[in-house]
């Protein structure tokens, strides 16, 4: 039996800002960490063909000189399934009965050689047809498949990997364990750059959790494309706004946080929108505003009102406000601190031209009565066709999140659902795969990648 190795190195590195596979990690190109480890484990394991699939000329030429089978992927936009297919097809004639094919990704430079050896050895000893490296509840890479599964792998399409096949064959799957979560992390941000600390943001794909390093990644926000983000619902709207703002600021964006209803007044970096008179002229006000935003990267803008809150700026100033920032994040609903709500007739107040609407609900509402957890409990009870004393179920959150009379009300563009404050290790069943879960949305820190990992 031989274990053939296919390394996938064809991603576009959008979040990294440059070709991350050529960036230096501990003094050498990121991709070479895995290629060197594969070369070394071949001395102790029955490694067969070694294949690397890439779109990058420099990597192509380098690995060709190293006597690897190198396959050029000229269509990375076709998704990971295309790279898988190209890799398998390049060695199809050399795969024998009883062989296996393993798949690695080249942006996991911290995957240890001893972990790879232990995982592949454990796979062989298990007698299973599929293997997957994990850390606790998280499935990761590498994965390995017996040759009997090649037909199914070749039939994959789009941005879907081998775990779709694995999910259908769990009884035939060996799970190896990495020593730390860091080993499974792919590097989506440049070394030394500031980023947001991993705080357990995930989605459920094919019944299993897929973790994200940032809320922006989970939502699918692309700086430069998505200009206006409106946040509605209950159970964490304000913290969601500021979490997104901090992540985007760390990516170099100038962010304004505001509201179309009411929100708590920020204790720092707040700008009173009707303060032009203090400057003598609007020209002075906007010059100072632009300089401050350039320096701070995040400003909260609004008009002060009672009880420590702010309300939105006049609608005639919306266009001006948008012109001042790279991204505008808007709290567009109110719930007075409750975890669950449905909108009244005048709600939500989605900002004109919004690119993405995020509907937020608090998971702690589940198991509590509508009276306890709900905003405007009588209205919520009528919507759910329950009494106010009845307990809220997970299915109720799904219903509210997916209803055009619930959080999807008045939504015209892209819509995402965020369930906040889900207990660690709990993965609710049911609902669309695009639902985003978070253990604690307010957790974020400005650290470099090295500080987080150390």
From TrEMBL:
Domain of life per record: Bacteria
Any one GO MF annotation of this record: nucleotidyltransferase activity
InterPro entries associated with the record: MobA-like_NTP_Trfase (IPR025877), Mur-like_cat_sf (IPR036565), Nucleotide-diphossugar_trans (IPR029044), YqeC (IPR017587)
Matching Gene3D superfamilies: Spore Coat Polysaccharide Biosynthesis Protein SpsA, Chain A
Domain MobA-like NTP transferase per the UniProt entry, residue ranges: 5-169
A Pfam family annotated for this UniProt entry: YqeC
Name this polypeptide is given: Putative selenium-dependent hydroxylase accessory protein YqeC
Organism: Faecalimonas umbilicata
